Amino acid sequence: MNRKAISAVLSGTMLLSLMAGSMTTVQAAGKTKLTLWHIQTGEMANVIQGSVDRFMEANPDYDVEVVQKQNDTFKTDVSLAAQAGTLPDIFITWGGQTMYDYADQGLIADLTEYMNKDNYKDQFVDAGIAQCTYKDKIWAAPVENISVAGIFYNKDVFDKYNLEEPKTLDDLEKICDTLVENGVAPFALANATKWTGSMFFQYLATRYGGLEPFADAAAGKGSFENDAFEFAGTKIQDWVDKGYFCDGFNGMDDDSGQARALFYTGSAAMDLMGSWFTMTIAGENKQFLDDGKLGFFPFPEIPDSKADQSLCLGTIGDNLYVVSNKCADKEAAFKVIQSLLDDEAVKERTDLAKIIPLKSFKTSDPVVQEVLDTISKAKGIQLWYDQYLPSEVAEVHKTTSQEIFGKTITPAEADKELQDAMTAYLSKKGTASTEAESAETEA
Amino acid sequence: MQQTSLAFRRKKSIAVASTVFLFPALLVIAIFIIYPIIDSFATSAYDWNGITDKLFVGFGNWKEMFHDKVFWKAFGNNLIVMVLSICIQMPIGIALATWLDKVGRKGNVAKVIWFIPMLMSSVAIGYLFRYALDANTGFVTGLSQLFGGGRVDLLGNPGKVLLTCIFIISWQFTPFYMVYYLAGYSGLSEDVKEAAMIDGATERQYFWRVALPLLKPTIKSAVILSMVGSLKYFDLVYVLTKGGPSHASELMATYMYSMAFESHRNGYASTLACGMFILISLIAIVTMRLLNRKED
């Protein structure tokens, strides 16, 4: 009997210790611990670690742990951590509806006070601060990168067929026709990834109708069943019919670089891509850059459109760094964020071809300079639809855009499907907020 | 009197010991299997993106699922994968196993080569075929161009993508069933074959009249395995096409994944998971009943 009791107790303790083992963390004595989650890879991860190391050297009372997370699962990681109450002190968001949700749920801290201190926010490009602002408060710092989409082209191919950078959409179509005649695919496109093709849709809609149609539709004041989106969808299908995109685009994935291979070898002439493309090429095919083969021009204009033709599609800041509301020392956390853009870091980031959203930013790379010129001329930025929209609507947009390319759906049907998803989301949100309000009044 | 009490005590001590020994396993099963299933059913009554508050919608998600064309298309695709997998993999698996069983050791090299696809991870196979089937630079396009044909787009074409996936799945899993049947063959006694041969059976007669009926239990469990496997299939298709283009290769599991981790509709994704759970259980139970009845 005794032995049984002992063995039961022993196995019980063993189980308990197994379960407890993962919970204990050793705290460095007397130091405040901060955690930072980022999603940078390669050399950039070292830059961030370097910044944080300099912060810890200057502030020996702090111990900052830097955790490199995966891009694709990041939103899920954050929501899991939020539920478990283990949100890191500093993490990133891409802005848009996701950041607004974080703010509304009280997950992230209001950084207005810190951003205003010593006019720190004035160092940033205005559009970047605008992207971090919600309900007149600043919730984040735009640190990483200015990414706008534009058309990159292979200069060799353009030279070979005596082509010049197009100014208008008609010019672009002429170029494409010439290329098709000569058996070159005008655009390299890997559209299994969906957001790649969606950029054509977004740019065409923005050129046709400006910022309003999208902003109104997303806010529930307008609709996606609108001329601008209809125009975008129709144009894309027209271009698909004319063979403007490389063969098999809907089956190719951007991550595996098949479409880029066509671009490098000159089998495809152009690629509509975010300005991170220069970094991608630097990592993948440096020779291509060194030979000066890469060219850039902004998305062509529609001359007779009422909309502003200087608008860019993209993001100012890309990864916006936020501080958790539960963070014990928010001021220090903000200083860690500032250290990500200290003089040393700015230099390192510039060398890595990042376009830092600081007013003082300068570059020596001619292609990056062209991107910068485009941005400085832009009267506004259209944030990527898939970052601006709530994820469930964003996914519908990405899928319908892929279907437009695949011609399994008409542009009107696609717009209707997207509008239905938007309406469903807004009505749900409406019920949620009225419920919350009535709960508040009851309390 | 003493005997009964001894028997009773023995029974009791076995009960205690088995409880103690089973407890850790039960605990793990409860935490990692039973609790999540119950929680999925509970979550299926909410609309929830993981960040904002859960919004109770009752059977709203279930209603949506019943009317969700994409889900039923995915279910249909799963059924196609299931039927074709069985039709392709089982006969080839049996044929290879039969040949290997017949030639014995001489077939070892072939056995190893045929088994290689099974040793590769699904993700690696996915990437391999993504490149091999590339419409511009891939193997199939190259072959077609060699014979004067045009470019072949298998993964981007909604009409062909599902069959392409099934072909790759079969390429991956046929070796598994080959080994499975080979194991079944090794369970057959040599005496049976000798007896059949002495009675004047030809090789063909031996296979159809003796070996195949004796392999029936193996075939049965292989069919069930393949069925459940195809109904919950995920990894290779996800890597290869992510269910696209236009949901043409969407499976229930890839659809559920995209709802949960791309659209962040956790409530609805839970509903889909529960729907899958119910559908797969039903199909498995019905099939097992049918297969067992035939035996009687």
TrEMBL record, chain A:
Entry keyword Membrane: no
InterPro entries from the UniProt entry: Bact_solute-bd_prot1, SBP
Signal is among the record's keywords: yes
Pfam families: SBP_bac_1
Annotated transmembrane regions: none
Keywords carried by this UniProt record: Signal
Signal sequence interval, chain numbering: 1-28
Name of this protein: Extracellular solute-binding protein
Organism, scientific name: Porcincola intestinalis
Automatic annotation (TrEMBL), chain B:
ABC transmembrane type-1 domain ranges (all copies): 75-289
Keywords assigned: Cell membrane, Membrane, Transmembrane, Transmembrane helix, Transport
Annotated SUPFAM superfamilies: MetI-like
Compartments, record wording: Cell membrane
One Gene Ontology CC term in the entry: plasma membrane
A single BP term in Gene Ontology: transmembrane transport
Domain of life: Bacteria
Transmembrane segments: 12-38, 79-100, 112-133, 161-183, 268-291
Keyword Transport part of the UniProt annotation: yes
Cross-referenced Pfam families: BPD_transp_1 (PF00528)
Membrane topology category: Multi-pass membrane protein
Entry's family note: Belongs to the binding-protein-dependent transport system permease family.
Protein name, entry field: Sugar ABC transporter permease
Originating species: Porcincola intestinalis
Lineage, uppermost ranks: Bacteria, Bacillati, Bacillota, Clostridia, Lachnospirales
